[in-house]
Design a protein that fits this description.
The complex is a heterodimer of chains A (196) and B (354).
Chain A lengths: L3 H18 L4 H17 L12 E2 L5 E2 L1 H12 L3 E4 L2 E4 L1 H11 L2 H14 L7 H9 L2 H8 L4 E2 L3 H18 L7 H17 L2
Chain B lengths: L7 H9 L2 H9 L1 H17 L3 E2 L5 E6 L5 H10 E3 L8 E2 L2 E6 L5 E4 L4 H7 L3 E6 L2 E6 L2 E4 L19 H13 L5 H6 L8 E2 L3 H15 L4 E4 L13 E5 L4 E15 L4 E6 L1 H21 L4 E10 L14 H4 L13 H4 L7 E4 L6
Parallel strand pairs in B: 1-4, 2-5, 10-13, 13-15, 15-16
Antiparallel strand pairs in B: 2-7, 3-6, 5-6, 7-8, 8-9, 11-12, 12-13, 13-14
Helix pairs in contact in B: 2-3, 6-8
The chains are: A mainly alpha (196), B alpha/beta (354).
Chain lengths: 196, 354
């Protein structure tokens, strides 16, 4: 049985990404699940409440075993199908997602997922990945070419601080979470590229 | 550099100029939503249409309905149909996004409507410059993808060959991307600076990173000079269990401008060496990972100039463009002998000639 949060996230992210850019790849789903998790931190939620964890791969990408398993489950249940070189939701997948979205327990996290995927209105997937590559914890692991847990306690504490400063800079309480995420990603890209 | 501590001044400046944040601050979350409806339209539009440096695109969204606009819409606008209304290359396009997200294309836009539109959110693309006007206050959109005509009306490639050809035609030929610009020794683009390899690789890598949907893409770092394994760029598509190996070579001359000493000269034999290296690597790879479908691509940045001497600072057009149409002959032709090697892609880089 898949992790229920990862199962829901896979369907919701899969639908949202597919609607914007015609399907998704495995790494894109991990990437936007991680972005959704960061938005929950932005709102002050504990990292442990996200429901599953991420590691950074040697390629500098966030990766969750639970998301990977949920994609496999979705494919085996006929909720996903190959759409050219990408994966997309089948009609069964959309129906399954609709029934899950009606459940109160998923409403909060779906808002984080929506905010995450809305970054694709401004960036393409490569830019989102590039931005996260400049984040110190992912960058550190990538340079050492090894994998390790992301969002450890010191990293989460640092992100809380970073996001508090972002809130201050925004100077208004944005209910729409694409606003802080797009601002944060642009900041990472600007700072990261300047130093190359 | 990686980002650990936040540079507050930079963050503040960025947020002040971030259209999504400005729209949200100006109009509340409804402003962010209206902004996103414009962005969503541009994204969908990009599935069927492209823009170029002469495209003129205006997309606006009012923050509240207006009787005059409603009236004029009946005369001047029709419902926009994706894939029908704007298809192929866009010359000029004016679109209104209504509150329910439905787009309407305006054939022309009366001056009084322009004034009303300015009270809401207006996106403009003119001469490759994108701006948002929010409640009359205009702000340019910095390009996250350097050299792109539009940050939003952007096409993705799923086919690597298409992406490489597009890079050749839209970026490399006139050295539009900033990394490629940095590879030149001087502004007339006659000479590369000494050791341009990494910049060339990185320029191509960055383009593919942005425009090609992929699973993983690796760039050979500057210090890796193991020529026996020429993986300059490797792209992986895991679902299809396939990968692309890109070998990058350059032809022409590099110079140390301080001493005016030519530091390297590469003629077409360099391209043939690249083809051989690639074929040898693919053979080695085939034996190591027989189940992975790996294809090889040779990309040649060609800046050969006819009769170029170390003292030259400019060149007549005939000499500058002499090699423009001079294709390189390969013997053996690995791309015909092996089914895992694509035909080499030569990218002629134009000089600036009087």
């Amino acid at each position: 049985m898949s992790n229920p949060s990862a199962y829901f996230d896979t369907l919701s992210l899969g639908e949202r990404i597919s609607d914007l850019i015609e399907g998704f790849t495995h790494p894109e789903l991990h990437l936007f699940a991680y972005a959704g998790c960061l938005l929950s931190l932005y709102e002050g939620q504990p990292a442990a409440e996200w429901g599953y964890e991420f590691v950074s791969t040697e390629n500098g990408l966030p990766f969750s075993q639970d998301i990977d398993a949920a994609i496999d489950t979705g494919i085996s249940l006929g909720l996903f199908h190959m759409h050219g070189p990408f994966i997309a939701l089948t009609s069964d997948g959309r129906a399954e997602l609709k029934s899950l979205r009606d459940m109160e327990s998923y409403k909060v996290r779906d808002r984080y997922l929506a905010g995450a995927v809305d970054a694709l209105l401004v960036f393409n997937p490569g830019n989102v990945r590039e931005a996260f590559n400049y984040d110190s914890s992912i960058s550190y692991l990538k340079k050492g070419n090894h994998t390790d847990w992301l969002l450890t306690k010191p990293v989460v504490e640092r992100l809380y601080d970073n996001f508090q400063q972002l809130r201050t800079a925004l100077a208004y309480d944005a209910r729409d979470l694409s606003v802080p995420l797009v601002s944060w990603l642009k900041y990472l890209i600007q700072m990261g590229r300047t130093s190359l | 550099m990686t980002v650990t501590q936040v540079d507050l001044d930079t963050l503040q400046t960025l947020v002040i100029h971030e259209p999504l944040a400005v729209a949200g601050k100006q109009f509340g979350d409804v402003g962010s939503e209206r902004m996103k409806s414009i962005l969503r339209f541009l994204k969908q539009c990009a599935r069927h249409a492209t823009v170029h440096d002469k495209s003129d695109v205006t997309v606006f969204a009012l923050m509240q309905s207006d009787a005059l606009v409603d009236d004029r819409r009946l005369q001047h606008a029709t419902a926009f149909q994706f894939g029908v209304t704007a298809r192929g290359s866009i010359q000029s396009l004016i679109v209104e996004i209504r509150a329910d997200g439905s787009p309407f294309v305006w054939q022309s836009i009366p001056a009084d409507i322009i004034a009303i539109a300015q009270t809401g959110i207006v996106y403009r693309l003119q001469q490759s410059v994108e701006t948002f006007s929010i409640s009359g206050s205009s702000m340019p959109v910095p390009k996250v993808i350097p050299g792109a005509v539009s940050q939003f009306i952007l096409n993705y490639f799923t086919d690597l060959k298409d992406a490489l050809n597009a890079y050749r035609d839209s970026m490399a030929r006139t050295s539009k991307c900033h990394l490629l610009c940095q590879a030149w020794a001087e502004e007339n683009r006659l000479w590369f600076a000494t050791k341009p390899e990494y910049r060339l690789r990185r320029a191509l890598h960055n383009y593919l990173y942005s425009y090609l949907r992929h699973d993983d893409i690796d760039l050979r770092e500057e210090q890796n000079v193991d020529d026996s394994h020429p993986v300059d760029i490797k792209i992986v598509w895991r679902m299809q269990n396939r990968s692309a190996i890109i070998e990058v070579k350059w032809l022409g001359k590099s110079i140390d401008l301080k001493t005016r000493k030519i530091t390297q000269t590469y003629a077409d034999a360099r391209a043939r060496k690249g083809a051989k290296q690639l074929a040898e690597y693919l053979e080695w790879h085939r034996q190591q990972a027989a189940k992975e479908d790996a294809r090889g691509y040779l990309v040649i940045f060609d800046c050969r100039r006819k009769g170029l001497k170390a003292t030259d600072t400019s060149l007549a057009k005939a000499n500058g463009f002499y090699y423009d149409k001079c294709e390189i002959s390969f013997a053996p032709e690995y791309h015909k002998q092996r089914d895992d090697v694509e035909e080499p892609i030569r990218m002629f880089l134009e000089p600036v000639c009087v």
